Amino acid sequence: MGSKKLAMLVIFAVFALLNLLYMEFPTCTLSDDKPPFKPNVPLPGTTVPMSTSSSSVSVVTSDQQEKEEIDPLLPPPKATKSERISWFRRKLPELEILKSTTKSKRFHGRVLELYNNNCSAQFFMVWLSPAKSFGPREMLAVDTLFTTNPNACLVILSNSLDSPRGYTILKPFLDQSFNLVAVTLDIPFLVKNTPAEAWLKKLKSGKMDPGSIPLFMHLSDLTRLAVLYKYGGIYLDTDIIFLNSVTGLRNAIGAQSLDPETKRWTRLNNAVMVFDIYHPLMHEFLQEYSTTFDGNRWGYNSPYLVSRVIQRLGHKPEYNLTIFPPNAFYPVNWLKIPRLFKKPTTTGEVKWVEKTVQDMTKGSYMIHLWNKVTRKMKIEEGSVMHKLISTHCTVCGNITDSHT
């Protein structure tokens, strides 16, 4: 064998050994104790409406490993309860997402490492789908977040984005020096010493019906509650377009709809939640999730959960809770939002677009895009959405081609 080939083999072996050591011995090992954060505090000049009375990743993983970690667990169609339980019991050994692994145990340390950057606010998103499906629409959510909250920190809880492919996807934001990291989540750690710990134990026993709805949706609902309880900050869905800074908000949730006569909220939504660390309401949400979980009813463990808990408990002074009206986070409902994607074709429509853009820019923190409805809709040039995104983005990639 030639000397050059031998040298190349030696170099390759050294890099492989270093990567193995990196995986087996994390650079940061911290205890499970209470994170040393200060709760969010309002910033000067922030107007809060009156409430109603009711670091980069360098962990190597193969595409096959990534696929196994984020298996959406679509249960057999039309399966009975007993059939689903038997099916899920067989799948349990494959579910890395329910385990604490060498990689996931770095979660706490990596979150604290990011938050040592003097963040103006702590943001969390959850992405349990494949990295390749984190597309232009999700990128716009991250883009507008940092444009309107440039000194904030964002943790994306995602096994699939915590990978070389995920690093490549998020690199446009890292190149802008935004405080962003994708971290493999550690669900056992997140629910430890919370009411949801018993729920996870029962699920992993294989004796619980996981439901007919894909499990990753329920795990997303659980994770957003647990991470806000243990760290405090702001949770956001990935189909959000930011219009104004939210770093001054504290202990807040938004109404999705109001009673037309009483003007009191009829439904809340958990797509945007802002809470202090260890807030008692977050504890109540986790308790409700653990004791009333139903994997067969869409929204039952999510928006309906926060609605029924707050409806039942009332607005206690110690909660220090603000319930925002719909225009704050959900200014357009899912039935009417398609109009915002359309280019105006008449003088009247042009005036409507201009007024809508002006009103939303002044009166809303963000727009929820209701991806189930709009994911396949093209954002046409000149539309309300195109104008709002164009003036609230930094990277600004693929605005008109962000549909799938």
Automatic annotation (TrEMBL):
Residues of the signal peptide: 1-31
Domain Alpha 1,4-glycosyltransferase: 275-396
Pfam name, any one: Gb3_synth
Keyword Transport included in the entry's annotation: no
Protein keywords: Signal
InterPro entries: A1-4-GlycosylTfrase_dom, GlycoTrfase_DXD_sugar-bd_CS, Nucleotide-diphossugar_trans, Put_A1-4-GlycosylTfrase_plant
Keyword Signal: yes
Name the record gives this protein: Alpha 1,4-glycosyltransferase domain-containing protein
Annotated source species: Brassica rapa subsp. trilocularis
Gene for this chain: A05p009400.1_BraROA
